[in-house]
Amino acid sequence: MLSTTTYRNIEWGRVFGFSLLALLAMFLAAFFGLASAVLPYFFALALILIPITLLVAIFNVELALVVSVASIFGIIPIFLQPSLPIAGVVIHTGEMLLLMLGGLVLIKTLYRPTAIMQTLQPLHAPLIVLGIMYVISITYSVGIKHDAYGLAETRNLVGWIALPVAIYAFRWHFKRMDFYLRAFAVLVALLLVAQTVSGVRLIYADRGAELISEEYSDVIRSSAGAANFLLGYALYYALGRAAMARNKFLWVVLVNLLGLGLIVTFTRGAWFAAFAGMLVFFFITRAHRLMMGALTLTVLFALVLGGGLLVAKPHLIGAVEERLFSVEEEGGKGTSVGYRLNENKQALRAIAHNPVLGVGIGGEYKKYSGTHGREVHEGEFTYIHNSYLGLAVKLGLLAIIVPFWIYRNLWRVWVRHRPVLYGKVEGLRLNLAAAISTMSMFMVNTLTQPEWLRLGGLVTVSLLIAMILTASRLIDLEAHAGTKVK
Questions:
Q1: Cα distance between residue 84 and residue 99, in whole Å
Q2: 414, pLDDT greater than 80
Q3: From its phi and psi, is residue 427 left (phi > 0), alpha (psi between -120 and 50) or beta?
Q4: pLDDT of 439-471, one tens digit each?
Q5: Cβ-count burial of 368 within 10 angstroms (0-12 exposed, 13-18 middle, 19+ buried)?
Q6: Pick from 39, 97, 100, 418: most CB atoms within 10 A?
Q7: Is-contact 68 97, C-beta < 8 A?
Q8: For 379-383, what is the mean pLDDT?
Q9: Is the pLDDT of residue 29 over 70?
């Protein structure tokens, strides 16, 4: 038993501890009170949120990473996010949080520095080559040419910090991180559908809400940017669960919700890419009979859902049809396809002019010709929709092979696990199949979107790479040691 003196020491220790916490709270209250009166509101807000976020991240890196993703994707409205102007570049909340998470994961893995590198082993070569290209390009653009947009575009590379953070999150709490991402995807789908049906703006990301056309002026084109890929991942996962689960109703509802979320983006590239990813998913799983049963139930539910939508939004089907078949009218002056064809022509000229180094990150590759039929926007002469041409323009011609190199090595991960994937769409095998299918969706969609060059796109590809490689290692652990995944 403890002596009376010991009890008194413990009691005095508690009193001292609580007194210290009270004094610290008073100091922080006084500090933030003075800061709010002296500093701009975004500085004061950042000073308050940063320690709170760090505290959450210490105990739950997965949740903090998803909050960072939501911020970067614009699902958290930009006007609610504090930002810090540094060296002429505005750093937003998502980027600040991602940088802090990167530092936190670095500290947490100091005792085992090889853990993340071992997971990344299949991609060592392409990532090292890409890193060298980045260094050369930034030096050329920012250090030698002093391009105006050099630092602004270099900031997008912060997205790669999500790779080690996501590997850490998946490696230690795979199920939790996977659940958070799928729950986030469902939330995004709900916001997209609700915004389109109600006409009330709920998403404040860039181009988060636009009218589809003058003819369908009551139909809003909702956009969630790179979050579309998480919708794809959750869609493939839900379809797999619908095929295997006894109670299929919930998963069929989720398949319809996520599919409808992709439809109301009215993004043809996302539609075709999601369909391509679906084909890959069927090919990988080879559970054709189970999948057809799940698809039959999904279609039946979709017919009921479609009837309800026709009542709530009678022009929605017509808007989808117009968006789908308006491709036939594209290609001329003033059209979306015509504009992008002009981009591609000028990109090819820039590559031919400097195939080794390109124009550098932030470098201008085209000149205003007055023929594309659009207003000039900020960054007009550095922006390109085709990711693969964009990499060649910015980093040099050899950079165009890096995405395919990464994809090929990830595909080889599936090939190695092929015997245990066929006909088994459950557990980690389902995660692996859905993630590789989403990576296929990403590769197709980046033919028309610059996701390999944008912050959100790099965060997305980091999440997918981390999930694929970590799921692969955990499948091996389960096979050899019988270890259960947390």
A1: 13
A2: yes
A3: left
A4: 999 999 999 889 999 999 999 999 999 999 999
A5: exposed
A6: 97
A7: yes
A8: 71
A9: no
What is the structure's pLDDT at 268?
82
**What single DSSP character describes residue 485?**
P
Angle at CA of residue 457, ends 452 and 462, nearest 5°? 95
What's the alpha-carbon Rg for the chain, to the nearest Å?
25
Residues 320-343: b if buried by 16+ CB within 10 A, e if exposed: bebbeeeeeeeeeeebeebbbebb
In this prediction, residue 389 carries a pLDDT of 92
* In the predicted structure, residue 10 carries a pLDDT above the cut 50: no
Residue 84, sorted as left (phi over 0), alpha (psi -120 to 50) or beta, turns out to be beta
Tell whether the model's pLDDT for residue 325 goes beyond 60: no
Q: Which residues contact 261 (CB under 8 A, 6 or more apart)?
A: 188, 189, 190, 192, 193, 224, 231
Closest Cα partner for 278 from 265, 297, 291?
291
Longest dimension (CA), the chain: 90
> What digits encode the pLDDT tens for the residues 64-112?
999 899 988 888 877 677 666 666 667 777 888 898 899 888 888 887 7
